[in-house]
Amino acid sequence: MIVRQFISWIRTASAGERAEATRSLARAWLISDLTQDDRAAAEGALLMLLDDASPLVRQAMAEVFARSAEAPAAIVQALSLDQTSVALPVLEHSPLLIDADLVDIVATGSCEIQCAIARRTNLPASVCAAIAEVGGAAAALELIENAHAELAPFSWDRIVERHGHLAAIRESMLVLEDLPAATRAALVGKLSETLAQFVVARNWLSADRAVRIATEARDRSTVNIAAGSRGQDMSGLVRHLRATGQLTAGLILRALLSGNIELLDHALSELSGLPLARVSALLHDRGGASLYALLKRAGLADSTFAAFRVALEACHEIGYVDTPGGAARLRRRMVERVLTHCETDHHAAEPLLILLRRFATESAREEARTFCDDVVADGPTAPMHDEMIAA
After folding, report:
1. Please, what is the average pLDDT of the chain?
2. Residue 98 CB neighbour total at 10 angstroms
3. What is the mean predicted confidence (pLDDT) over 212-237?
4. What CA–CA distance (Å, rounded) separates 35 from 1?
5. Which residues of 277-304 are buried (b: 16+ CB within 10 A; e: fewer)?
6. Taking 60 as the threshold, does the pLDDT of residue 24 lie above it?
7. What residue segments make up the domains of the chain, in order of their start?
């Protein structure tokens, strides 16, 4: 009887009054002890109100039903397809929407709608993949910051591919501790490209020099990322580097000269097709023939073999690096030893010598920075200004 009176009353009520009355009726449907007949009548009235001319009425219904698992499924489905202001609370919170519904809505929805779905709790991998594939940058950012989203590795990579040039995306991803190493390296690659294009567009550097500097910075970051990677994460990183053409002799030599033997092992295993254990055994074999055979099978140039041999010998003598920070920096003693050998080797190619000289400069500067940091960390010292002037 009450529902019938409600239906008669709303025909003449204002939009605001209808919205408040609809909110009350929706709450009653969820929490009141209605008879079976009254419940059926209430649902019928709510279904009728889906056609109300005012969005305020449908918004009121959406706000009440958005988080409830007991809401009428047909009404929730209709609200999810309504105009944006009505659909948003349902799309963000309703547990009644299935994955297929959400994927379809992501594909056809506006940026606001995609963002609302990206904020959902317990967001499954299929919906995350849809947002990564077709969602806008704002939706991708919401997805990255959603701790309850289940992103597969390929979804991370797709976000980097589509939006990695945006600073907000990079910053949000790089602070994630569990971000796959391959994805982190892809982000660094995007950043390097963006910076190179920027300085060239401003005529600050020539295109060739900008690319070289960006490539060197990317390689340093890659070794830094690898220093904190282990197991499958390292394998994924190396596969990414090979697929993107970054697994070069220069990068592998940088890893060795930084004492990062694990990256060296995985890189040569990937390039040679040999098992990791077999590669590790060949690298620890002090005989030069085994090393040369491995490097040749990995497709590295003959002119680099002597540099790898001397670097391995130095690494065996100096010792391996067992901290992520240490494995991310070139070791000056090793670099200078390899450079000295190659400068007296008539078979050393000029590009290799140029690379090693850059490594030597970089390692010297890094060592100087570390020394100065250590001096400052030891505490304040007496002013030397007057003494230096007198001298």
Report:
1. 87
2. 12
3. 90
4. 11
5. eebbebbeeeeeeebbebbeebebeebb
6. yes
7. 1-94, 98-179, 181-377
